[in-house]
Amino acid sequence: MTLVLFILIFGVVVIAHEFGHFLLAKANGIHVVEFAVGMGPNLFSVKKGDTKYSLKLFPIGGACMFEGEDGLNEKEGEPSEGAFNKAGVWGRISTVAAGPVFNFILAFIVAFIMVNMSDVFAIRDAVASQVSEGGGAEAAGLQAGDRILSINGEKVRLYQEISLYMQATYRGGDLEIVYERDGEQYTTTLTPQYDQEMGMYLLGVMNGEFQEPEGFETFQYAWYEIRYSVKATYKSLAMLFRGQVGREDVAGPVGIAVNVVGKTYDEAKNYGWQSVLISMLNIVLMLSVNLGILNLLPVPALDGGRLVFLLLEVIRGKPVPPEKEGMVHFVGLVFFMVLMVFIFFNDLVNIFMH
Question: Measured by CB atoms within 10 angstroms of the end CB, which terminus of the chain is less buried, N or C?
Answer without folding.
Answer: C
